[in-house]
Amino acid sequence: MSAPLPESAPSLAVVSLLPAQRRQRIVEFLRRHGAVTLVQLEQALEVSVSTLRRDLDSLAAEGVIDRTHGGALLRQQGYTAFEPDSVASSELSPREKRAIGTAAAAALQPHQSVIFDSGSTVLEAARAAVARGLPFTAVTNDLAIAQALGASPQVQVHVFGGQLRPGSQTLVGEQLIEAARAIQADVLLCGAHAITGGIITETSPEVAAVKRALMRAAVSRRLLVDASKFRPRTFMQVATLDEVDEIYCDDALPADEAEHLRNLGKRLTLVPVTG
């Protein structure tokens, strides 16, 4: 079982609900997150996978949701631009994100320069890098990540200037993009909203533009995504996987996706998630 949801989020654990009540909880969960896997719903709702499959099939038949391989998402016409808030994003796959972040941090070398993109999985990498006591130079556009990195006297932290996105701790804007043109870091640790057929996408044009600039500012571009991110594409294209050097994902990644990535010649690290 996964770690419990943060206290700030409404509890979604249910006991002996009627099918209609349970399905309403699923719809509420999807409204917060946009897209989820069966495993995520099982952990959050404490309901068996077989029951959830029946619930999702029923909701799909009613036209409320769209079914995907291993999960569900908002109706397609609304999903491409759907963007969960930062608290909602952090609720999903916490164990997977922590394992991926730890593995990515373990690959960093002393005295490297590292760009930390915004996002909950990259935040876990920042925390793991600090826990290693590694000396390095960091640049980020995420205030939460900057704060985590600043806890170590071994890390020299630089924060890009820009505009703070409403409801988040992410900085965006032309000032940031211009600043990114002036640096060439050793490593970029980058997240993504969705990966579909070799294309990395985001819901926000501003976030997508920043990610593209950060990718151009690093020698080694490393993508940190849990298996649930391999899903239908969203609004704005960031890059193709040809522009990424390494991918870190949990070992729940479907075998066909893993084979596709390896056929692209990408270095793929599948991280086991335990305990």
Automatic annotation (TrEMBL):
Coiled coil: none annotated. One of its GO terms (molecular function) is DNA-binding transcription factor activity. Transmembrane segments: none annotated. Residues 19-74 form the HTH deoR-type domain. InterPro entries: Carb_Metab_HTH_regulators, DeoR-like_C, DeoR_HTH, NagB/RpiA_transferase-like, Tscrpt_reg_HTH_DeoR_CS, WH-like_DNA-bd_sf, WH_DNA-bd_sf. It holds the Pfam family DeoRC. Keywords: DNA-binding, Transcription, Transcription regulation. It comes from the Bacteria. The keyword DNA-binding applies. This is DeoR/GlpR transcriptional regulator.
